[in-house]
C-alpha cells in the first residue's frame, strides 16, 4: 500500500471545470405505463467514464436511479449498457471518446427490464447454464505464456464476463428468444475445445440444433459488442466446423470421437 | 450442485424460481428489439450490414425468381406473346432493373461465398476484410455488366 | 420458509461480501433472513477490490493475528468454493538490497504464522515469471490466489437464497424503526425504499445487522449510534495484458508491499491510500495513477508501457478513530459492534473492517454475537458447507 | 483442478428444438446449393443474356436453345437448386420472426408445396417449349 497524502487532481471528475455533456437516461419504474428518457447535465474530465457519470447522477442529482455495477474495470460484467445505440461496458467507456454532446444511455436490449438501467440476468443464465461451465481455471496457463507475445493466447472463453452484451447486440436474439444465443454457444465451444470434466460430445449434440449453432446468421454483432475478446461468433463458426466434421464422420461409418 | 448440499431448501425448485421472480418485473416486456431492428441502421457494424444486405438481396432475388417464372409462361402462349414481351424488356426502363438484379445477385452470391467459408469455420477472423474485398470485386463486375447492358440496349 | 414462523428475523443491510456471508451463516443457523442492498449486489467496496485471496504472508511480519486468520480462511474458502480461485500462488519479490535484507524475517514470520512459504532463487523466479524485473534478488512463494471479486460473494448469496434467505437488491435502507424501552432504545425494523418501483415500506426485525462497509457510519447514524469507521480509499489500475500468472507482491520492509495480480486478460496494480468522509464520491487522483505505474513497473518493467484498461478507487472500511490522515494508521482487522453493550441500543449490530478473504470469518463472528443476543445455541456450519455456483444465483 | 459443477443438463431451461434430425445437413445443403446456384446463375446469365445478341432471345431462338439436351438438364438443375436455396432461405428468415412451432410447421409444409409446384411448372414449361421444335 502506498500512502499518498495529497489526493490531487481527480481524473474521473464529474464537476466543473470539465466539458459539459447532456445524458439522456432511460427511466422506468415497475408500474409505470411506459419508459421515458430523462436528461441530466454533467461536466466530465478526460478519463470520466459513463459509469462515473451515472453514479454521479445517482449520488448528486437523483438517488432513485438504479443501475448495475460492481468492479469498475470490465471484469464483472454488470454495467453493460446501450450507450448511443451501441453495446458498451459503462465502466471502460470514456464519455469524451463518444464524441457526442448528448449521451443516450439505455439498458441492454432483448432482456427483461427490472427498472431504469437494470435488466434481469435470469434469462442470460438460463441459456448459459444449459452448457454448464466453471468460470475460472485453477491456473490460467503455463507461466511461459505470460510473456508479452504470449498474452494473446489467453484469449479463452473464461474471459467471458457474463455481461449479456452479445445477447443485446444479436439480431436473431432480438427477434426470437428460442435461439440459444452467442454467450452460451461460445461457452459450448470452450467446453468442446477444453472439456475439463464436461462431455464434449453431449455438448456438440446439444448445440447441433436449429436453435443452436445453426441459428446464427453471421452478423458478427456479438463479437463486435463483446468487451472481453471472447469472439462468440468466431466460436460459433468453429463449433459448426466440428459439428459438420462429426456428422461426416458418422455418415461415413466412422464412430463419433 | 447436487441436491444433498441443499439443506433446509424450503420448496425445492419452486422456492428457487419464486426467488428468481422476486427480481422480475410486474409485467415489463423483455424489451426485445424485434424484427424491426433488422431495419435499424443505428449502431450497426460491418457484419451487421452484411447480414441485412444478404437478407434483403436474398428476398429480392426470390421475388424476382417468381416474376421471372411467371413471365416465362408467355413462352407457352406462343411466339407472338413472347416476342412482344422481348421488345418491351429491351426498353431502358427494364434494363435498369436488370442492373438492379445483377447487383442483388452479386451482393448475395459473393457475400454467400463469405458466409459459407465462415460458416464452416474458415477464415473467420478475416471476415470483414473478406466482405470488403468481395464487395469491391462485385462492384467491378457490376460496372462491367452495366456498361455491357446499356451498350447492347 | 420451512422454519417455524417464530424463527427470529434478521435484516442485513448491505449486499457486499460481508452481508452475503452473514446471510449465509445466519440462515444455516435457522434464522429468517432479509438482506437489503441499495444498488446491485457487490456494488460497493466488495466488487472493486483487486481480487486477492490472501495467504496471510502480507501480514506475517507486523500482524501475526491477521496472518493466521488469512491462511485459515484461505484454506476454508478453497474447500467450500472450489472453482472460484486461480490457485496460482503468490510471489514476494525482493528487488533492492534493502528488500533482500527483510527476506529472512519475512520468511520466518510466514512459517511462524502457519503460512506455507518456499524460498525461490532469482533464476527460478524469472523462470516462473519471465516478466519480472531481472534485477530482482530473491523471492518467496506463498499460497496467495486470485478470485473474482463479485462471483465469490454471489456464491454466498446463491446458497443463502437456496436455503431460504430473501435477497433484495435496489432496496435502500432509509430509516430505522426505533422503540424507546425502559432499558433504552431498541431497533425493531428498517424502513426501505424499493428503487425498482418507488415504494417505501418497513421490514420488521429482531436484529438489524449493519454490514455496509465504508457506509457503516452513515447507516449507524440512522440508528442513532456512532461507529468509528473511516472510509479509506485506494486506487487500482487495470492494464491490458496478463503480465504475470502469480500474484506478484513487493517484499518490502513494511511487509505491506505493492501488488500486481492477473485477472483474466488484465493485470491489476494496487494500491494507494487516503481518507475521505464520503464513500460515494471517490476521486481517481492523477498522481496516484502515476504512482501505481511506478510501483508496478519496479516489479514488472513491461507495465511501464502497458495500455490502461481502467482506473478506479475503492473505499476500505477501516476501524479507527476519526482524524487519521492516511489509511495506514488504521487497523486492518475486523470488528463486530454490539451496540447494546457499547451504545445502549438494542437490536442493532455493526460488522466492519476486515478483508475479502476473511468474509466468512467476519460472518461467523457476527452470527455468534447475534446468537448470543437472541439466546440461540447453534454452531457455525459455514466452515464445511459447500457453496452453490455463482450462476445459481440467477437460476 | 477441481471442477465446479455449475449446473447440469437436468437444470437446463433453454431447450433444443426437439427435432430428431440433425440440423447440420440443413446448413450444409444451403451452402452447397448456394455455391451451385452461384455457378449455374453465372452460366445462365452468360448463356441467356450476355452471349445473345440484344441480350434476350426471341421465341425461335429459345426453342432452338432448348433443343440441346445438355441445356435442358442444366436449366432444370438450376431451377431445382435455386428453388431449394431460395425457399430454405425464406424459411430461415421467417423462422427468425419467432412464430409458434405450429405456425412454423405450416410454413415448412407450404414451402414444400410451393417448391414442388415450381419444379413441376418448370418441367411442364420446358416440355411445352420443346414440343414446338
Outline the structure in words:
The complex is a heterotetramer of chains A (257), B (153), C (395) and D (133). Chain A is 30% helix and 15% strand. With 257 residues, chain A is of the alpha+beta class. Chain A contains eight helices and eight strands, in the order βββαβββββααααααα. Chain A starts with a strand and ends in a 6-residue tail after the last helix. In chain A, helix 2 (122-131) runs parallel beside helix 5 (182-193), helix 5 (182-193) packs antiparallel against helix 6 and helix 5 (182-193) packs across helix 8. Chain A folds into two domains: 19-119, Roll (Ubiquitin-like (UB roll)), CATH 3.10.20; 122-251, Fumarate Reductase Iron-sulfur Protein, Chain B, domain 2, CATH 1.10.1060. In chain A, 62% of the residues are buried. With 153 residues, chain B is an all-alpha fold. In chain B, helix 2 crosses helix 4 (92-119) and helix 4 (92-119) packs antiparallel against helix 5. Chain B is elongated, with a radius of gyration of 26 Å. The model of chain B is unreliable at 1-28 (pLDDT under 50). In chain C, 27% of the residues lie in helices and 30% in strands. In chain C, 64% of the residues are buried. Chain D has one domain (27-132): 3 helical TM bundles of succinate and fumarate reductases (Up-down Bundle), CATH 1.20.1300. Helices cover 70% and strands 0% of the residues of chain D. The N and C termini of chain D lie far apart (78 Å). Chain D is mostly helical. Chains in contact: A-B, A-C, A-D, B-C, B-D, C-D. Chains A and C meet through strand 1 and helix 2 of A and strand 4, strand 14, strand 17, strand 18 and helix 7 of C.
CATH topology title of chain D = 3 helical TM bundles of succinate and fumarate reductases
Number of helices of chain C: 9
Tell me the strand order in the biggest sheet of chain C: 6-7-5-15-16-17-14-19
**Can you identify the CATH class of the largest domain in chain C?**
Alpha Beta
Overall geometric form of chain D: elongated
- The whole-angstrom Rg of chain C is 21 Å
> CATH H-level name of the largest domain in chain C... which superfamily?
D-Amino Acid Oxidase, subunit A, domain 2
Name the poorly predicted regions of chain D: 1-12
The number of helical segments of chain D is 4
Strands of chain D, count: 0
Ends apart, CA distance between termini of chain D: 78 Å
Helix content of chain C: 25-40%
Average residue pLDDT of chain D: 84
Q: What is the subunit arrangement here?
A: heterotetramer
* H-E string of chain D: HHHH
Share of residues in strands of chain D: under 5%
Largest sheet of chain C: 8 strands, mixed
What helical percentage do the residues of chain D reach?
Answer: 55-70%
Amino acid at each position: 500500500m502506498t500512502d499518498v497524502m495529497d489526493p490531487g487532481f481527480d481524473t474521473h471528475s464529474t464537476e466543473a471545470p470539465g466539458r459539459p455533456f447532456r445524458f439522456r437516461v432511460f427511466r422506468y419504474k415497475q408500474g409505470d405505463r411506459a419508459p421515458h428518457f430523462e436528461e441530466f447535465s454533467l461536466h466530465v474530465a478526460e478519463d470520466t467514464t459513463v459509469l462515473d457519470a451515472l453514479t454521479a447522477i445517482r449520488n448528486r442529482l437523483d438517488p432513485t436511479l438504479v443501475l448495475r455495477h460492481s468492479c469498475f474495470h470490465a471484469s464483472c460484467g454488470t454495467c453493460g449498457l446501450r450507450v448511443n445505440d451501441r453495446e458498451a461496458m459503462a465502466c471502460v467507456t470514456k464519455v469524451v471518446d463518444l464524441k457526442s454532446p448528448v449521451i443516450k444511455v439505455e439498458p441492454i436490449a432483448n432482456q427483461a427490464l427490472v427498472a431504469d438501467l437494470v435488466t434481469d440476468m435470469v434469462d442470460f443464465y438460463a441459456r448459459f447454464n444449459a452448457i454448464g461451465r466453471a468460470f475460472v481455471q485453477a491456473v490460467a496457463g503455463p507461466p511461459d505464456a505470460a510473456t508479452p507475445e504470449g498474452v494473446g493466447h489467453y484469449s479463452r472463453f473464461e474471459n467471458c464476463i457474463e455481461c449479456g452484451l452479445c445477447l443485446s447486440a444479436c439480431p436473431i436474439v432480438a427477434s426470437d428468444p428460442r435461439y440459444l444465443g452467442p454467450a452460451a454457444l461460445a461457452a459450448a465451444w470452450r467446453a468442446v475445445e477444453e472439456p475439463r470434466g464436461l462431455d464434449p460430445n453431449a455438448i456438440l449434440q446439444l448445440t447441433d440444433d436449429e436453435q443452436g449453432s445453426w441459428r446464427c446468421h453471421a452478423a458478427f454483432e456479438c463479437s463486435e459488442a463483446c468487451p472481453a475478446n471472447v469472439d462468440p461468433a468466431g466460436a460459433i463458426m468453429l463449433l459448426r466446423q466440428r459439428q459438420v466434421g462429426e456428422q461426416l464422420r458418422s455418415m461415413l461409418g466412422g464412430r463419433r470421437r | 450442485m447436487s441436491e444433498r448440499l441443499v439443506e433446509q431448501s424450503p420448496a425445492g425448485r419452486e422456492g428457487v424460481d419464486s426467488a428468481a421472480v422476486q427480481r422480475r418485473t410486474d409485467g415489463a416486456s423483455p424489451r426485445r428489439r424485434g424484427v424491426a431492428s433488422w431495419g435499424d441502421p443505428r449502431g450497426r457494424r460491418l457484419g451487421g450490414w452484411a447480414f441485412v444486405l444478404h437478407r434483403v438481396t436474398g428476398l429480392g432475388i426470390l421475388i424476382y425468381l417468381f416474376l421471372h417464372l411467371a413471365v416465362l409462361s408467355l413462352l407457352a402462349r406462343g411466339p407472338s406473346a413472347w416476342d412482344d414481351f422481348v421488345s418491351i424488356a429491351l426498353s431502358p426502363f427494364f434494363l435498369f432493373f436488370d442492373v438492379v438484379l445483377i447487383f442483388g445477385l452479386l451482393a448475395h452470391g459473393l457475400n454467400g461465398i463469405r458466409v459459407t467459408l465462415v460458416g464452416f469455420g474458415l477464415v473467420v477472423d478475416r471476415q470483414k476484410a473478406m466482405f470488403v474485398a468481395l464487395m469491391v470485386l462485385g462492384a467491378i463486375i457490376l460496372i462491367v455488366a452495366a456498361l455491357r447492358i446499356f451498350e447492347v440496349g | 420458509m420451512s422454519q417455524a414462523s417464530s424463527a427470529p428475523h434478521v435484516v442485513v443491510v448491505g449486499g457486499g461480501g460481508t452481508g452475503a456471508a452473514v446471510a449465509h451463516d445466519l440462515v444455516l443457523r435457522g434464522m429468517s433472513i432479509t438482506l437489503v442492498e441499495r444498488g446491485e449486489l457487490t456494488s460497493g467496496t466488495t466488487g472493486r477490490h483487486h481480487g486477492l485471496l490472501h495467504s496471510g504472508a502480507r501480514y506475517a511480519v507486523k500482524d501475526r493475528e491477521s496472518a493466521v486468520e488469512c491462511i485459515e480462511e484461505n484454506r476454508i474458502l478453497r474447500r467450500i468454493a472450489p472453482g472460484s480461485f486461480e490457485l496460482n500462488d503468490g510471489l514476494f519479490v525482493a528487488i533492492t538490497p534493502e528488500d533482500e535484507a527483510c527476506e529472512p524475517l519475512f520468511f520466518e514470520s510466514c512459517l511462524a504464522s502457519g503460512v506455507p512459504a518456499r524460498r525461490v532463487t532469482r533464476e527460478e523466479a524469472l523462470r516462473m515469471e519471465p516478466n519480472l524485473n531481472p534485477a530482482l534478488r530473491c523471492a518467496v512463494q506463498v499460497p496467495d490466489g486470485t478470485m473474482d471479486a463479485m462471483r465469490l460473494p454471489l456464491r454466498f448469496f446463491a446458497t443463502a437464497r437456496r436455503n431460504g434467505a430473501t435477497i433484495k437488491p435496489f432496496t435502500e435502507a432509509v430509516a430505522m424503526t426505533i422503540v424507546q424501552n425502559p432499558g433504552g432504545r431498541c431497533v425493531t425494523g428498517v424502513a426501505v425504499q424499493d428503487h425498482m418501483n418507488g415504494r417505501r415500506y418497513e421490514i420488521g426485525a429482531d436484529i438489524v445487522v449493519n454490514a455496509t462497509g465504508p457506509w457503516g457510519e452513515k447507516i449507524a447514524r440512522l440508528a442513532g449510534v456512532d461507529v468509528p469507521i473511516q472510509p479509506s480509499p485506494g486506487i487500482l489500475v487495470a492494464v491490458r495484458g496478463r503480465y504475470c500468472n502469480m500474484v506478484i507482491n513487493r517484499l518490502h520492509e513494511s511487509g505491506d508491499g505493492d501488488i500486481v495480480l492477473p485477472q483474466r486478460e488484465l493485470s491489476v496494480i494496487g494500491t494507494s491510500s487516503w481518507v475521505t468522509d464520503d464513500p460515494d464520491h471517490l476521486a481517481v487522483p492523477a498522481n496516484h495513477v502515476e504512482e501505481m505505474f511506478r510501483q508496478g513497473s519496479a516489479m514488472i518493467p513491461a507495465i511501464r508501457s502497458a495500455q490502461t484498461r481502467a482506473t478506479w478507487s475503492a473505499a476500505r472500511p477501516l476501524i479507527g478513530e476519526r482524524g487519521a490522515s492516511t489509511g495506514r494508521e488504521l487497523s486492518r482487522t475486523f470488528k463486530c459492534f454490539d451496540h447494546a453493550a457499547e451504545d445502549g441500543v438494542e437490536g442493532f449490530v455493526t460488522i466492519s473492517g476486515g478483508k475479502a478473504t476473511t468474509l466468512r470469518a467476519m460472518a461467523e463472528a457476527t452470527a455468534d454475537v447475534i446468537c448470543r443476543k437472541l439466546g440461540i445455541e447453534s454452531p457455525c456450519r459455514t466452515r464445511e458447507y459447500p457453496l452453490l455456483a455463482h450462476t445459481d444465483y440467477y437460476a | 483442478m477441481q471442477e465446479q459443477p455449475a449446473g447440469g443438463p437436468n437444470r437446463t431451461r433453454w431447450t433444443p428444438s426437439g427435432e430428431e434430425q440433425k440440423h447440420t445437413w440443413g446448413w450444409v445443403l444451403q451452402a452447397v446449393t448456394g455455391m451451385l446456384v452461384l455457378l449455374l446463375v453465372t452460366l445462365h446469365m452468360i448463356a441467356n443474356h450476355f452471349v445473345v445478341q440484344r441480350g434476350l432471345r426471341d421465341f425461335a431462338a429459345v426453342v432452338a436453345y432448348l433443343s440441346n439436351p445438355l441445356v435442358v438438364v442444366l436449366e432444370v438443375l438450376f431451377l431445382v437448386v435455386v428453388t431449394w436455396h431460395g425457399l430454405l432461405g425464406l424459411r430461415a428468415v421467417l423462422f427468425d420472426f419467432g412464430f409458434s412451432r405450429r405456425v412454423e410447421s405450416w410454413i415448412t409444409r407450404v414451402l414444400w408445396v410451393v417448391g414442388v409446384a415450381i419444379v413441376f411448372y418448370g418441367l411442364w414449361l420446358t416440355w411445352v417449349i420443346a414440343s414446338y421444335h
